[in-house]
Amino acid sequence: MIPSAFEYFAPASVAEAISLLEQYGDEAKILAGGHSLLPAMKLRLASPGVLIDINKIAELRGVVINGSINIGAMTTWHTIEHHDGLKSACGVLPEVVAQIGDIQVRNRGTLGGALAHADPAADAPAAILALDAQIRTHGPGGERTIAAGDFFTDMLTTSLEPNELITAIIVNKLGAGEGAAYAKFPHPASRYAIVGVAAYVKMNGDKVSACRVAVTGAGPMPTRQGDTEQAMLNSDGSAEAIAKAAEEAGANMDVLGDIHASEDYRRAMVKVYARRALTTAVARARR
Amino acid sequence: MTAETELKPRYIGQSMKRREDPQLITGKGNYIDDIKLAGMLHVALVRSPYAHATIKSIDASKALAHPGVVAVFTGDDMMDINPLPCAWAAGRVKNNVNTPRALAVGTVRHVGEAVAMVLADDRYIARDAADMVDVEYDPLPVVVDAKEATAPGAPQLHENAPNNIVMEWDAGDKAATDAAFASAEVTISEPIINQRLIPTPMETRGSITRYDEATGEFTVWMTSQAPHVMRLLLTAFVFGIPETKLRCISPNVGGGFGQKIFCYNDMAFTMWASRKLARPVKFVEDRAENYKASTHGRDHITDAEICGTKDGMISGLRVKTYANLGGYLSTIAPGIPTTLYGRIISGVYKIPSAYCHVTGVYTNTAMVDAYRGAGRPEASYLIERMIDRFATEIGMDPAEVRRKNFIQPEDFPYQNGLGMLPYDSGNYEPALNKALEMAGYADFRKAQAEARANGTYLGIGISSYVEVCGVAPSAWIGLAGEGWGAGLFESANVRVHLTGKVAVTTGSLPHGQGLETTFAQVVADELGVPYDDVQIQWGDTQGTPFGYGTYGSRSLTVGGTAIKKSVDKIKEKAKKLAAHMLEANEADIVFENGTAYVKGSPDKVKTIGEIALQASVAYSLPEGMEPFLDETSYYDPPNCTFPFGTHISIVEVDPDTGMVDLKRYIAVDDCGNQINPLVVEGQIHGGIVQGIAQALYERAVYNEDGQLLSGTLMDYAIPTAEMSPHIETDHTVTPSPVNPLGVKGAGEAGTIASAQCVMNAVIDALSPFGVKHMQMPASPERVWKAVHSK
C-alpha cells in the first residue's frame, strides 16, 4: 500500500495541464478525484512517474444549466448528487451518482475522472451512454466534442488522446414525455456495479419514440443495447413490451465472470435490471 | 452473602458510556503506527508470489545499493533463532507440528510468505527496494482444499506430516453413536462447509523492537491481544533468552477478533534485526499483507449426520470434519477445531450419543487460527443447520424440535458426553420463547403462506446456541488435558494511592471491548469509590504481574474476577486498619460505600481515602501490618462459562436476482449478570453483524494455484452499517455459578449465534423451490441458482 515515487504538478489552468501532458507524455497520469488511480498506485498496479493534479483548475468545476446541462469535468459526485437544478433538469444523474461508492468517495470522485478512467463497472458511463451525452475535451489542438457512443472503446480504454483532458460533459435536459432511470446490482465489497443498467425512454403519446439502454458492470466496457432499444421503439411501453425488450439485453455483448458472479448469472441479471430500469424510465416518461 | 454485596450497586448494571471512546474516536489513540522512535528503521518484506515453491536464490545486491537501504536479511541469516512455537497441541493425539520461521528457509508454502526483509531509513525506500530483491523460485505443485490435501498423490507440504495431516482427533462415543444411527427412524446427512474468513481488524498488525545494547534488553511494541504470552514464546522458545530480557507492550490495539492473539514472524524478525543493527526496527503490514499473511478463520469441510425419531427426539449426531489449518501451524491452531469445536458440537441439545472426528490439514494457504468465536461458530452453525434439516424431514416446526431436545434447567451442571467441561447453568426455553414472541412467530407462518401466494418469498430462521467462554481452568485446558501449553488464569493488581485514587493493572487488555469502563465499574462498586477515581492500566508486561490475554470471552469472567479478588483483599486490609484507627475490634467493622465504621455507629466513619493515607504514610499501623494498600490476585476459574440464547431472523428473497433482504433480526442472549448493558449490546451487535456477513457476504477464495482472489477490500466484502439490519435485542439473566460476579461473557456470542440464524431463514424462504441446504455465503448467485434450478 505504498506507491512508488512520482513527481507531482498541480497546474492552475487547462492550458498548463495540457502542456505538462505534452511534456511528460506516457509517463504522466492525470489525478482527478484519485479514487481509482491512487488505490492502483498503492497496490503498484500503476506506477506513473508524474502526477498532474487538476483539482486546482477552477474552470473545470461546476454545473451550468441553460438550454442544456454543462457539467465541468472536475465536478464531484457530491455536487451532482445534491444539485437541485440537476434534480429537476435530469434527475437520473443525481440518482446514479448517489449509488456510487460511499460518502467519502463521492466527496472526492469526479464525473470527468470516472469517464476518463472508464472502469468497466463504473456507474456513470452507463448513464452517459443512455443520455447520449457529449464529452468535451481539450488538447494541444484545441477543443473537440466526442459523442458518448464513440467515447468508450474497450476495457479501461477511451477515444481520449493521451495529451487530451476532458473539460466538460454536456447532457440534454429531460423534458415532457422523457424519462430515464438507473437500476444497479452493487458489488457487496467495492460497491461498483456487478450489473448496472441505465435506460432512457421518450414517449410520443402511447408509443415509445426513442429509447436508449446501456449496461455497465457485466462486460469489458459500458455497452448500448441496440436490440433492446429496437424492441422498445414504437411499442406501447407496457410491462409485456418491456419484458420482451429486456430479454434481448446482453445478447450482443461480451460478458465476464468472476468470483462474485459468473457469466451466466450476469447475463441473467442484465435482463432483470434492464427490465427494472426500463419500467421506471417508462413510468417517468408517462408522468 | 455478606452485608456489603447486598448494597445497591451504583455502577454495576449501568449503561455507562465507554470512557476509552473519546480518545479513540477523535484520533488521539496511540496505535503502533503512531509510535516513532529516534533512529528507527522501517521494514518492507519480499513476499512469495507462489503458493508452494523452492527458493533457489535470493539476490539483494540491487536493493542494498539503493540509497537509504541499510540492510537486507533472509531466513538463512536468522538460523540462530528457532521457528515460532505452536502452543496448543490438540489434546491426546500426535500433532505433526510445523511452524513458520521469522523468514522462509528453503521452501515457501503459501502466497505472501515472507522471504526477505529490507530495512531502510523510511518506509517508502524500504518498499521500493523490496521490489529490487531478486528471488528465483522453483514452483511446486499446490493444494488449497483440506479434503483434497489428504487424498493419495496430493502435493506434500511437510516431510513429517504424511498426507498433509496435522492430527486426527475425536470426541464422543463412536460405538454408541453408530448404534443409534443403525436403529434410528430418521437419519439425515448433509455436507456442510464453513467457509474461510479473513478477520479484518480495522488496524492491521505490526511490531516495533528497540534493543538496548547496554542491558541486552528488548522492548517490543506489538498489536497483541496477549503480550505476556508473546514474552514467554519469544524468549523461551524463539530466542532462548531469559524472560526478563523482553518487555512487551500492547498500546491501543484497533480490533483483533483473534487475529492478534498469535505469535507472528514480525515480532521475531524485528527483534533479531534490532539486535543485529542496534537500531529500533518497525514493521507494520498493509491491508494486502494482512490478507495474505496474517491468520484466517474457519475453513471446515464437514460431513454431518443427525438421527432421531419421527416424533422429533434427536438420538445421535455424527460429524467428520476436515479443518484447513494452512501452510503452517499458527500459535493455537490445533486447539480451535478440537477442544473449542468438537467438544461442543451437540449445542443446546440433550443428544444421547454424539461423535466428532476432526482431521487437521496443511494446505498451501495462509494459516488458520482463532477468529471471533473460534470453533464455536462452526459447531453452532453445524448443529443448528442439522436441527432444521431434521425438522424439515419429519415435518415438525423447528422451534418445537428445539424445545423437545433442549437440555433442561434441572440437568445443570450438564455433561455433554463430548469431553467438554460441565455446562455451568442454563435455561434455554425462556430465551427461545421470548425470541419467538418478539418475532411474532405464531402469526408469521400465515403471513409467509400469503406472501408466497403473491410471489414474495419470506423465511424465518431460528438459532438456539450455547458457547463456552471464560476459558479456562488451567488443569483442564493445559498440556495434560486439552493440550494448551500453559495455564489460563488471569491476574490483577489493585493499589490505592495515598490520595484514595485507585490504580488497577490487569492481564486482560482491551482492543475494542470497553474493558476499561467495565472493569472500572466493578472496582468502583466493590471498593465503594467514585468511578472516576479508578484507573485501569494494561498492556505492558512491565506493569502487570502476568496475563494470558484477551480472547475466548474471558476478560470479565476471568480477568474481572481476578480484579474482584484483589479488591476483596484490599477491603480486608482496610477493615483491619480501620479497626485500628477507630480503636475497635475488626469483627465490629462494617465496610460499605468506601467507608468503614463500627457497627451501630455509622456516623463516625473512616473513608477509604483516610485509610489509604494512613496505610501509605504508615505512622500508625496495627502490629505486623505492612504499609500500603496493594494487592495482587491470580484467578484460575474452576470451570468455563456457557452463555446461551436464541436469535431469530426474517428474510425476503428476491427470486429474480437471488438477493436476500434481511428484514428483521432478533437476539435474546443470556450472558449471566451484565455489568454494563450498553457494552454488552455493543458486543452483541458487532458479533451478529460478523455472523450475518459470513452468511451473506464474506468468503476468502483461493484459486487452484493458491492465489488469494479475495485479496483486497474491493473483493472481500466486510459488512458496513448500510448492510446491517436494525437489531432487536433482549436478554434473560441466568447468573453463572462459576465466578462471584455471576458473569458469562458476551464478546463472541453474537458471531456464534448469527450465521445459521440467517442461513436457516434463507433456506426456509427457499423451501418452495425444494431447497433443504445451501452453503455459505448465500450470495445472490447461489440463491438465484437454487431458485432457477428447480
What's the quick description here?
The complex is a heterodimer of chains A (about 290) and B (about 800). Chain A has about 290 residues and is of the alpha+beta class. The N and C termini of chain A lie far apart (about 50 Å).
Number of domains of chain A: 3
How does CATH name the architecture of the largest domain in chain B? 2-Layer Sandwich
Strand neighbour order, sheet with most strands of chain B: 3-5-1-12-9-10-11
- Assembly state here? heterodimer
Largest sheet of chain A, order of strands side by side? 4-5-10-6-7
What is the radius of gyration of chain A computed over CA atoms, rounded to a whole number of angstroms? Answer: 19 Å
What is the CATH C level class of the largest domain in chain A, in words?
Alpha Beta
Beta-strand share of residues of chain A: 25-35%
CATH fold node name of the largest domain in chain A: Uridine Diphospho-n-acetylenolpyruvylglucosamine Reductase, domain 3
Report the uncertain regions of chain A.
none
Count, helices of chain A? 12
Please characterize this protein's 3D structure.
By secondary structure, chain A is of the alpha+beta class. Chain A folds into three domains: 47 residues, Uridine Diphospho-n-acetylenolpyruvylglucosamine Reductase, domain 2 (2-Layer Sandwich), CATH 3.30.43; 115 residues, Uridine Diphospho-n-acetylenolpyruvylglucosamine Reductase, domain 3 (2-Layer Sandwich); 109 residues, CO dehydrogenase flavoprotein, C-terminal domain (Enolase-like, domain 1, 2-Layer Sandwich). Chain A is built from twelve helices and 14 strands. Chain A has a five-stranded antiparallel sheet, sandwiched between helices. In chain A, strands 11-12-13-14 form a four-stranded antiparallel sheet, sandwiched between helices. In chain A, a hairpin with a 2-residue loop joins strand 4 and strand 5. Chain B folds into three domains: 172 residues, Aldehyde oxidase/xanthine dehydrogenase, molybdopterin binding domain (Aldehyde Oxidoreductase, domain 4, 2-Layer Sandwich); 191 residues, Aldehyde Oxidoreductase, domain 3; 326 residues, Aldehyde Oxidoreductase, domain 4 (2-Layer Sandwich). Chain B has a seven-stranded mixed sheet with strand order 3-5-1-12-9-10-11. A five-stranded mixed sheet of chain B has the order 7-15-14-13-8. A four-stranded mixed sheet of chain B has the order 16-24-25-26, with helices on both faces. In chain B, a hairpin with a 4-residue loop joins strand 9 and strand 10. Chain B is α+β, with helices and mostly antiparallel strands. The termini of chain B are far apart. Classes of the chains: A alpha+beta (287), B alpha+beta (790).
